[in-house]
Amino acid sequence: MAETASRLPVIAGARYAKGRASVSVAPPAARLSLRAPSESVAALSKALGVALPEKPKTSITKGDVHALWLGPDEWLLIGPDGHDFAGALAKVAAFHSAVDISHRNAALMVEGAGAADALNAGCPQDLNLSAFPAGACSRTLMGKTEIVLLRLAEHAFRVEVWRSFAPYAFDFLEDAIKRDW
Length: 181
Known about the structure:
Radius of gyration: 17 Å
Distance between the termini: 52 Å
Structural class: alpha+beta
CATH superfamily: Probable tRNA modification gtpase trme, domain 1
Shape: globular
Strand order of the largest sheet: 1-2-8-11-10-9
Helix content: 10-25%
Largest sheet: 6 strands, antiparallel
Number of strands: 11
CATH class: Alpha Beta
Order of helices and strands: EEEHEEEHEEHEEEH
Number of domains: 1
């Protein structure tokens, strides 16, 4: 029987909290980069079991699966580690491109009443609740790295970042939180 390697977060167990905010590493997750024309959305949504959002800056969550709109023909799907998004789409005839990016990304959770302030220390996205409500998502920048930002609740964000930038993103957020926004 062949052995398989287990995937650990790039900065496993890292957590920092002070005052009104905290940053921690999220557990490993399944991720799929999905590209498709609008004609394919219904068939893909049916196969995935979650509707693909069709409006900018929106996401749809069903159970523990998040579907994030990143562009007119682009979505990021996030689910529990081991979730087989690609398998769900294997027999879909509708035109699409699906790439498993589970190992490419890491996720940081930024939480607390000062979470938006900590993120805005280096992220130009307007995180005012009226402009970026729960469920909003965006590909944006934080400091010197590209991120995908998902607002889970009023004071909770998920920051998706490439694994190689995860230590930088964590340190950036830790420094911002030390300012005790």
